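Quick entry between incubations.
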Amino acid sequence: MDEGNGQGDGAIPRILIVDDEPDVRYMMRLIFESAGYQVTEARHGVAGLKSVKARQPDLVTTDVMMPMMDGLEFIERLRSDPETAAIPILVVSGNAQLAIAANTRLGKPFDPQALLHAAALLIRENDG
Amino acid sequence: MGRLRTGIADLDLILGGGLEPGSLVIVAGAPGTGKTILAQQICFANATPEHKALYYTTLSEPHSKLVRHLEPFEFFTPAALGRSVDFIHLGELVQEAGNAGLEPVVTEVVRKCFETKPAVVVIDSAKALRDFVSDHELRTALYGLASRVAHTDALLVLVGEYTPREIEGGVEFSLADGIIQLAYEPHEPVDRRWLRVVKLRGGDHLVGKHSFRIRQKGFEVFPRLETLAPNGTVEPEGRVASGIPRLDELMGGGMSAGQATVVLGPSGAGKTILGLRFAVQGLEAGERCLYVSFQETAEQLVRKAGSFGWNIADAWKSGQLAIHYVPVGELDLDAIAAAVRRELTTGSVRRVVIDSLAELVFAAREADRFPAYSRSLVGWIRSAGASVVITSETTTLGPMTEPIGGLSFLFHNVVMLRYLEIGSELRRALNIIKMRTSNHDKGVFEYVIDRHGLTIKDRLEGVTGVLGWSALRSKS
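Done. Structure below.
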């Protein structure tokens, strides 16, 4: 992978992947870890909220259509909580355009380079 | 509340109008039969932003693959994803089924149903649920799921690779309000897909196997002809000119309107010419005609007619003449019947030619249903007030065996064409074997085929044995 993790020398950025499909999470984890990120996973919005509270990730990627709590509600909850409102959100979904409150949106299937590029950019912008 | 349409008009016809909201329907069949496509077509036909379709996958295929396979279909609209159709993965909830059984799965689906009031909920594959719980737990879970989802009036569809044996005894099926079985059957000369409504509570459905194809527009279903009743009956009166005046004379003034006439004869005897001439006569009288052809394409038929001086090109282009060419790869009795029904119901067709019946029988390889099929097809044509000429192949050499398995009884009139050898010369002869409601000439007549078509000449005198046998005069 030629896309860096968005951090020059500092701590390793943490990414939370929220998606109901294990195969998607697995692929994203591979891509992010090979670029030097720390990755945690959640399989729906409810688990995603818990994970955000516990780990304070530098970036959240989320699907839209999921059980228990869908991506739109998940994003709304993050945005409405002052503690999590500033966390950049990258939506990766079959119809990502629905998630207008996200920072960046990518369709599925995604291009690994585009995913890394979007993640690095969001983390860098948020740090800056 | 009305029935929920499947998005496939002929399937709704089979289902007696569609599927009941709040009911549990199982779509069962082997892999590759089209279950997922059918379920998705039902979803996309009914989903709205206010009443979504929820498509739950368990352990089937990833959503990206599912969507990629959907993209070629016309019913698929990418913008509907997430807006009116949700694809949600339940696999991990299912895999975790431990002491709690499938309760977490049921709870989640029911929660979402009460929250979003969907029109349709699909679980694909529902059979995968069997791998994680006992039969008893499965029954309890599905009962709970179906009864709770029913309160939201959503149609619950379970999709699974169930075998025919499982359909007979599986716990899912005793709970189901409807069961649609799909199958893929190796079938010469072309494989065939069919569906059967095994069970449907609260409505009349059409029984039996119904052919279907999967095309770009999605499911194309052809209701089994024998199960369909024609829409009313028109009783035409009078006689119908065949376009061959001498033949009409032999037939006591022509075939009666609304009747079915079969023209039997060997290859090259002139059956197609007789059928074409019958159609041309109708076109010249301003009638609308349908020609179903198994060997010649529309262009070939137009050229063939032109070689006899009959211009049917203009009628074909204007739609006065509909030519339905059926290539071998498309051969399916119910698909052909559907095309004929469509023509009969969309326009005032007065004449139909089917060329040829024997070819249809042999190629379709469904001899056991053929008498009932033929009777129904003729019934549909008659009920529309049309007259039909059907050609049928016989043997070329030697005594003619009874054609098309003794189906002549299905037709009002039987005209026979044959070759015969007279004075070391091959000639042709015609006779009327039967006319059900009219007297007719019992003679055998020579005919010729020339650039004007088929012309009947004189009665053959002093010749016997042309039927392959004759009553011999006793010596005493």
